[in-house]
Design brief:
The structure holds two protein chains of two kinds. By secondary structure, chain A is of the alpha+beta class. Chain A contains two helices and five strands; from the N terminus they run E-E-H-E-H-E-E. Chain A has a single domain, classed as Ubiquitin-like (UB roll). Chain A is 13% helix and 23% strand. A five-stranded mixed beta sheet of chain A has the order 2-1-5-3-4, with helices on one face. In chain A, a hairpin with a 5-residue loop joins strand 1 and strand 2. Chain A is globular. Chain B has two domains: 212 residues, FAD/NAD(P)-binding domain; 120 residues, FAD/NAD(P)-binding domain, CATH 3.50.50.60. By secondary structure, chain B is of the alpha/beta class. The chains are: A alpha+beta, B alpha/beta. The interface between A and B is medium-sized, with 20 and 25 residues.
Chain lengths: 111, 355
């Protein structure tokens, strides 16, 4: 299993950076990685369960990692979310794949 | 005063299934929910989405699951207080509880089961520095009575179904309707989008896209007089719109809400319960079941909520009928006797000689 993990850096809502290992073979997304390491309190992230319907997993992408393109439902949710920046993405829509090794993100404030 | 055996807070799947399990023990239930309909998240957030991990249902839509649960519990005649949020709880000397909603409806029961999911759904408030100064002075986060807006100038912000639907509705009621959204695209139902396009072409709705309300104008001691709109992030252009009401409609987000102040032990935004026994909280007679509770190894799954509801009802029976004997029966053996006089039972095997 070791070989299938990638390294991701997640800066939590208090500004603390965490380097974590994320498995690529468990169909996980970035929001779920944050929850599995408890980097944001339960109930403040992934509220809708990952349907791009709440924006509680919004994060800012800090590395130049190539990410999957934004789909319509993510785009629509981000257009209604708060604290949105040009590099905003919804963590639940970013699936963990080997290509994301080295990804660095910062969690957006709770809203 | 509404009186019942088990008062359930939250009419989502876990709360609805509790009605059935309680009914088998001849206990009556009443449910309170802040939303106007039963089903909780299943009907509010994703009614048209499929669920794949309900035992024996390879696939079921969340809305259909709600309907099936309502049908399953129907013969036990549950009561409902919908569109009201449970606000306060008071324990009486006889051990029973009185729960009062935000609209003042009082409920009394010896057992309270909190099946509140992620909490009650509250409107999301936009980040406008002085918006709280004008709440109920022209700023409303939800529309309760459209007549308030008759012949008034209204500004609505948002890009989803509720922003579109209310803009359409109020274009016939209000003197002036302005709809502001951060982008040109809306994510509502297609016919609502087309209807707004029509009304815009007829001059009945002023559409400002992309745009964002960034400030409220007026005297906070009095009433709002208008809003400041900035036209998209990248173009520095600001202007003011005079209006009587500003209605930001940015969806709902769940908050544990008043339950957090009931003296219950809270951890990770959930209520700590005794999972070794009966899902009771630190207050005797108050249980927490489904997504709203937490214990070591907790999983927020509908099927886990069903299990928790079932065990909780056994404990409720003991509280309501102290010392009274009961053993679990299979519904296949005992059938189901409804409070409405109906009876469901397995057909009897036929005994017939073979000659």
């Amino acid at each position: 299993m070791e070989g299938q993990d990638i390294k991701i850096t997640i800066i939590d809502r208090d500004g603390v950076a965490h380097d974590v290992d994320a498995p690529t073979d468990m169909a996980m997304n970035l929001m779920e990685v944050v929850r599995s390491y408890e980097l944001a309190p339960e109930g403040t992230i992934g509220v809708c369960g990952g349907m791009a319907m709440c924006a509680s997993c919004q994060c800012y992408v800090l590395s130049d990692t190539e990410l999957p393109e934004i789909q319509d439902d993510e785009e629509a949710m981000l257009s209604e979310a708060f604290y949105v920046k040009d590099n905003s993405r919804l963590g639940c829509q970013i699936h963990i794949t080997p290509e994301l090794d080295g990804l660095k993100v910062e969690l957006a404030p709770e809203s | 005063m509404i009186k019942t055996d088990i008062l359930i807070i939250g009419a989502g799947p876990t709360g609805l299934f509790t009605v059935f399990e309680a009914g088998l023990l001849k206990l009556k239930c009443h449910l309170i929910d802040a939303l106007p309909q039963a089903g909780g998240q299943c009907s509010e957030i994703y009614p048209k989405k499929p669920i794949y991990d309900i035992p024996a249902y390879p696939e079921i839509l969340a809305g259909d699951l709600t309907e099936k649960l309502l049908e399953q519990g129907k013969q036990f005649e549950p009561g409902f207080t919908l569109g009201e949020r449970a606000e306060t709880i008071e324990k009486l000397e006889d051990g029973s509880f009185i729960v009062t909603t935000n609209k003042g409806t009082k409920h009394q029961a010896p057992v309270v089961a909190i099946a509140g999911g992620l909490g009650s759904f509250e409107p999301r408030k936009p980040l406008i520095h002085n918006i709280s100064d004008f709440e109920d002075k022209g700023v409303e986060y939800m529309i309760k009575d459209p007549e308030v807006y008759r012949d008034k100038r209204v500004v609505i912000a948002g890009g989803g179904d509720s922003a579109l639907d209310w803009s359409i509705f109020l274009s016939d009621v209000a003197k002036e309707v302005t709809l502001i959204h951060r982008r040109n695209e809306f994510r509502g139902a297609l016919d609502s989008v087309e209807k707004v396009q029509d009304l815009k072409n007829q001059g009945k709705i002023n559409l400002i896209t992309p745009g964002e309300v960034t400030g409220i104008l007026g005297d906070p001691m009095d009433h709002l007089k208008g809003v400041v709109v900035s036209q998209a992030d990248h173009i520095e252009k600001e202007f003011e719109i005079e209006c009587d009401h500003f209605i930001p409609l940015f969806g709902l987000s769940p908050k544990l809400g008043p339950i957090a102040n009931w003296g219950l032990e809270i951890e990770k935004n959930a209520i700590v319960v005794n999972n070794a026994l009966d899902y009771q909280t630190n207050i005797t007679g108050i249980f927490a079941i489904g997504d709203v509770n937490t214990y070591p190894g907790k999983l927020k799954l509908i099927l886990c909520g069903f299990h928790e509801a079932t065990l909780m009802c056994q404990a409720a029976y003991q509280i309501i009928n102290p010392g009274k004997r009961y053993v679990l029966k299979y519904t296949t053996v005992s059938g189901v006797d409804g409070f409405d006089g109906t009876r469901k039972e397995a057909p009897k095997a036929v005994v017939k000689a073979i000659n």
